[in-house]
Amino acid sequence: MRKLLDWFERETGLISAWGRFWTQPLPPGVGWGHIFGALTLLVLVVLFLTGGALMFYYSPTPDQAYASVQYIEHYLPAGRFIRALHYWAARLIVPLIIIHILRVFFWGAYKRPRQMIWVTGVLLLLSVIGYGLTGYALPWDQKAYWGTVVRLKIAEGVPLVGEAVATFLRGGDTVGAVTLMRFFVLHVFVLSVLVFLLVAWHVLQVRRMGVTPPGVRVNEEASVEKTQRLYPEHTARIAVGAVILSVLLISLSLVFPAPLEPRANPMDTAYKPHPDFYVLWMHELVNFFPPNLEFLGSFVLPTLLVVLLLIVPFIERSPERQPRKRLLALSTGTLTLLIIVGLNVKGMEALPEPERLSPLEKRGQQVFVELKCYSCHGINGGGGPVGPDLGLGGKRDPEVVRNLLRNPSAHNPHSIMPAYHLSPDKEAALVAYIVNIGPNSKMPPIPPTEPEKPASHFEDNWFVNHKFEVRKDPGNCSDCHKSFFCQACHQNRRPSSHDAQWLKFHFGNAAERPEMCAACHSPDYCESCHKVMRHDTQWIQQHGSRLAQFGDKLQWAGQTMHQMCYQCHTPQSCQGCHSGALPASHKVANFLRDPQVGHGKLALKQGATSCNSCHQPQFCQSCHGLPMPHPEGWDSNHPQVGHKNPALCQRCHSFQEETCQTCHQAPPSSHTEDFRKEHPRRITDSGASCQVCHGRNACLNCHKTPMPHPKNWGETHGKLGQQRGWKGYDAVKKLQKAQCATCHDIKYCNQCHQP
Amino acid sequence: MEQRWTRREWLATLVKTLATLLAIVYSIPTLVMLVVPAFRRQKNPWIKVGKADEFPVGEPKAVTLSYQRRDGWVIRTVRSTVYVVAKPDGSLKVLSNICTHASCAVRWERSRSAFFCPCHAGYFDAEGKVVQGPAPRALPEYPHKVEGGLLYVRLENV
Question: What's the rounded Cα separation, in Å, for the pair A282 and A340?
């Protein structure tokens, strides 16, 4: 081992250089004030260490960056601590550098020959600020995204180069994947190389020139006797400082984890980025200038300040280091510092009051997270894009909020928000919290969902477009979401496919892609209807009884089963079968007429209800002309009907029927003895009343010609003979004798026909 | 023999101790974060296959499973197919559909009552045993359990 080290020393000289570095002599005045440079270096090492470790897990793409940070926070052992350490170290390094710079400034340590050490120091400060600006964007949460957008916007305001620089950093027109990668590379590579080189130069120069003895004039340094060494005397101070600093750093990291806001949402217009407290003085500076000169405050003055800082050693060139003898320089420096601090304090007053929650509201905030309200509503940004952002819209009335929670659709019939029926204490807490939400409220930290939402859910217009994704592969949704997830919204707003014609077409869709239905509906959803209504092979036989049983009782979506038939079928569709394909009973021969097996018998036997399962009650009347079966009191009523329309009776009855004969044995009073001779004069209804008893052919039986004679008989009666096949003069004679003479005299013919 | 420490020695020890302490404090959580997750095994979840009594006896049924797999911070939905074999005695067997020869997907051929691998004409019986062809081993079987009438399978690398 020893040999190996000796060989290494021979070859490189590094071991003795290492020894010489630590044993370098220091002047007597070097004390506790001189530890801050070393502490800064320690914090820088911590940043490199933790940053390097984080790099193992970080993925600099917009769709994965946030997920990977969440992975670091929630799934890695010590991941949250390492990230917090990185965060707090980054926060602490800036004040440490400033303290270091102030120490160097007040001690006048930047004077000849150490001007360039000061310059590298200032460059290191700028690099660290660059680290902060680039590292800010990496978690890709709301703050990261919007902060970056705003900063690049500010950079654009710089005259001449601003726009070019901003576009270069952005890598294009919009903040996105390219921007994130650029910031990542700047953060972990470009700045790291720069800082490494600057630190090496800075430290080696200090080693070469030695630490400035305090209060000694520039030319008198050589005479100062060096009484202590870096190791162990000064390193002991540094070590104590480092332990104190580490205790601070570690406890901060353990108590306050690094913040992580909701994932960046470029569409979120409600998010209000707030500047961090250490840049507030710049914001105040900007406010001093009118808008068209804003770049003076945002760019020119800070740049001037930086340039001034860089050339401090070249302005103040007096050899004095005693603070008493450098009052001008010190007062200028102090004044500048006080102005910056003062501006910052002023800026902090303008910061919004942080949200303060009572215990009840705190409980309400928990309920808010528990119920996942954030998946639809944002609070000044963050949250889902579905519902209104709760940070907007002024003060709310607790009563209105309560009613809205219980029944959102009462407030707005199109609301898709699900109703929440909470226990009274939870509801009271939630209402108190929601009422308290104002423009300064922030989204509470949201626990990571397992599994994390896929990248598609963060696409522009995801909410509007989700139906297309569902159509592509509904199984994709059901991997994570249960069917009631869809129903929560779609109960009140059905998918656009479910239009008025939907019932007609749903079967095809369901048969082709059952997973489409399963995306929203539970498997027993179909059965709730189809257990009584299924168009299978048995349906034809069953549908009558099913309809009779459930037709008007069961309802789906406000429609009875009967009404649902008419979604596809028209009332005529029934006729398509029922006029030809009749029930078995209707198929017997002569069903309409036969009194023994015919419809009348059936109707009498089974009652009209059996007919009514298909036929409307008016169905009989359309043929019979009167309610069937005959209404009550028919026996005494029927003569009126019979007189009005005797043919009606004859459709079913003949006078010879027993039922008629029981009453009507004797001829009616009109049939007097001379009736045979007189009847042509007595009959006033064209013989209709005769037909009641004598049948339809009552006249024809005797007269052999239609009675009374039809219209135009004068012209047409001649054809009568021809019809009967008689010809010639004899035929006329024969006709006269057989037909006409029964009523008419021969002279009657001669009125027209001259012999 | 009592040794008196000089101030220098005392400070040197202090510096060394504190430096070691700080190095340990900072490096241990870092190393834990880097090393431990790499050796953490992801426990394969039980995946629901379907109702245990709905598999036809004598005819293996192909079931496509879809499940979530964590790949670091990326969560992927993975689909894979298994064959569920219901035996006449009521017990179930869940077989991989990947042939042990060249990792082609096998399918059940009803006409021959065997799993058929189209790549090199391998045949496996309903138990998954090799009947014919170049396959070196039977079709792997996945562990399964029946809970509340539902069949669950754990897809392990077998």
Answer: 8
Domain that includes residue B1, residue range: 1-40
| Closest of B60, B103, B54 to residue B82, by C-alpha | B60
Could you tell me which chain B residue has the CA closest to the CA of A70?
B73
Interface test with chain A among B26, B63, B81, by most A beta carbons within 10 Å: B26
Q: Could you give the CA distance from residue A396 to residue A364 in angstroms, rounded to a whole number?
A: 15
- Partner-chain contact B26 A82, CB within 8 Å: no
B114 and B137, same domain (yes or no): yes
Query: What tokens does B59 get?
Result: 């005819």
Residues of A with CB under 8 A from a CB of B: 42, 46, 49-50, 53, 56-57, 59, 64, 67-68, 70-72, 75-79, 81-82, 85, 231-233, 235-236, 239-240, 242-243, 246, 250, 451-452, 454, 475-476, 479-480
What ipTM does the predicted assembly reach? 0.79
Distance of CA B56 to the CA centre of its chain: 27
**Chain A interface, best mutation among B7, B18, B67, B73, by max A CB count within 10 A:** B73
- Chain B nearest-CA distance from A77, in A, is 5
Domain containing residue A440: 359-455
A82-113 pLDDT tens trace: 999 999 999 999 999 999 999 999 888 888 88
Based on the fold, state whether residues B34 and B51 are members of the same structural domain: no
Report the C-alpha gap between A142 and A149 in whole angstroms: 11
pLDDT tens sequence across B29-73: 999 999 998 888 777 888 888 888 888 887 888 888 878 777 888
Q: Are A365 and A444 in contact (CB under 8 A)?
A: yes
